[in-house]
Amino acid sequence: MPSRYFATLLALVFASSLATSLPAQDIGRFKRVAIAPTKTSIYIGSVSMTMPLFERHGIAYSSTYSAKVFPYFFESEKGELSIDITDEDLKRLERGEVVEFKGRGKNTDGDERRIEGRAIPTDARTGKIKVRVFVSKKIQLIFNTTYRFPDV
Predict the structure, then answer these.
(1) Tell me, what DSSP letter sits at residue 35?
(2) What is the pLDDT of residues 82-100, one digit of tens each?
(3) Would residue 62 count as lying in a domain?
(4) Within-domain flag for 10
(5) Number of folded domains in the chain?
(6) Which of 45, 95, 103, 146 is the most exposed place for a label (fewest CB within 10 A)?
(7) Burial of 37 (0-12, 13-18, 19+ CB in 10 A)
(8) Could you tell me if 129 and 146 are in contact, meaning their C-beta atoms sit under 8 angstroms apart?
(9) Contact (CB, 8 A) for 131 and 142
(10) Helical H runs in 21-72?
(11) Considering the domain boundaries, does residue 97 fall inside one?
């Protein structure tokens, strides 16, 4: 009788560990993600945003960004941002499921930006991404672009 309980407990622990982390060989495939440059419209202008490759540390992907505002060039900014994507979220993306995420940005002046978004896979390595950046309580910028997990 006790050995059945032990076997059941062992099976539950093993299943739980599978649900929370990807195997080591899979983690490498998701170590970096490329986000295509993007642009959105604002009142009488536009905001263009570029980011180098995002690197994954723990559950967070982080990178720098450059946002250029036209014609209000004096509103342009640079900074850092991070987006939380768990191992389970990565598994869902790989299966073709939509994933919602949240993150934070901070410009070089120290102003923080809340980030929310949705990744919509087209296959296991690429997809579309919609990102909402909350610049202030009244101003939200919505960017639609694509993502790609580059070959390792």
Answers:
(1) E
(2) 999 999 999 999 899 999 9
(3) yes
(4) no
(5) 1
(6) 95
(7) exposed
(8) yes
(9) yes
(10) 24-29
(11) yes
